[in-house]
């Protein structure tokens, strides 16, 4: 009898595999980083083959740690960094180029051209998204236009497109080419209402439909396929759950009712507010996205605020400036000073996402004096994560009318207790961390387990969610307002720095 459900979580900086039992507890896991490739300013790439290699390695190590056989695993779910774009040969499986990562800004000129041609309102109405470098559609167009022979091969039906979920499912199953509505809704190519690829948008972007995967439910009782016996699992296991990472975290946090929200602190920072089966178009710079679709039930939608730089900001302090050796050091260093000494750090390294959508913004550090030291900069980096979250929450309130009293949080950075206290202070709201902080993997496991009856329904999953720690605001409203005014002034200084995009090679 199957005892476990497995989840592959392929993120921006690493891939992990986790096994969960029926209570939603972690049984075993392994995690490995992959390279971040920066060919030139504003460009970010990954090696798809390296991601697949890391996936095989973490599966093998986890199964070995837990001494688990394939027949003990009921199902496999996949969750992934969204929008990251891969094109590969339908026959050989060879990628035609490195993956273009969601943070990449090389398509800024194309997005400006589309906006100037008047296409912005149509894309926003059909997809819930602005014309921005963030999304997959323009990245597909860039690859077709710049990789020699790519367009001809695509039009001949020789190439396939996928975000990382599709790439991994294709590898796991030996050729099933599928995605789910949460990932498809981030391409700028799917109609939110019909959950189908939109032929008019495909024509505008010049993307052949033959490239695109079949859109299947996020939790699919009919299965996407089974794992190859000669693959990393060594047997046939149903692959039947697929969610973009932020939607997976929303499911893992049991935000199943309209008005429930979570914020994930990973490479970026992503807040989702469940709006139920209603499509709510934002007037305040948020994204409208699919939250999940379970089986043949209706799609559930969400408003999302996307922040490009969260954990990646701390990584930059470590790797680029050498101010810290390990991310864990930031908690003690930031607490060694009572404030930032008037310093603000806006990490707009690849522009600003919600609620501004300014691809011309670049990172700035303002308010420096001779008094400023390393600890002030580290604290300013943590505060930047919290201030960006505050801006997204304000936009959600303006769009939905819902003022949250508490925010569920998850992701790697939530282990930093001082960061969570800063977040409660800057929001003026309670912050709650669950016992299982890695809710992204848990959400993918839930989707797969529901598909095969390992878990019965969404309500049964609510009972698994338990709080680990809560933080209450500890500063005055006057202090909160003054700090936020300073942040807004700093953000304005970041605008307009990238006057023109680098030319393509």
Fraction in helix: 25-40%
Structural class: alpha+beta
Strand order of the largest sheet: 17-18-16-15-21-22-23
Low-confidence stretches: 501-505
Radius of gyration: 22 Å
- Give the CA-CA distance, first to last residue: 55 Å
User: How many helical stretches?
Assistant: 16
Inertia-based shape: globular
Quick one: how many beta strands? 23
Residue-averaged pLDDT, rounded? 92
Which percent range describes the beta-strand content? 15-25%
What characterizes the major β-sheet?
7 strands, mixed
Task: Produce the secondary structure layout.
Layout: E1 4-10, E2 14-20, E3 26-33, E4 45-46, H1 48-66, E5 73-80, E6 86-89, E7 99-100, H2 108-116, H3 120-127, H4 136-146, H5 150-155, E8 159-162, H6 164-173, E9 178-179, H7 181-184, E10 190-191, E11 196-197, H8 199-205, E12 214-215, E13 225-226, E14 238-244, H9 245-252, E15 261-265, E16 269-276, E17 287-292, E18 300-307, H10 311-321, H11 329-335, E19 344-346, E20 364-366, H12 374-400, E21 406-410, H13 417-427, E22 430-434, H14 439-451, H15 458-462, E23 467-471, H16 477-494
Parallel strand pairs: 1-5, 5-14, 9-12, 15-21, 21-22
Antiparallel strand pairs: 1-2, 2-3, 4-7, 6-8, 10-11, 13-14, 15-16, 16-18, 17-18, 19-20, 22-23
Helix pairs in contact: 9-14, 10-12, 11-12, 12-13
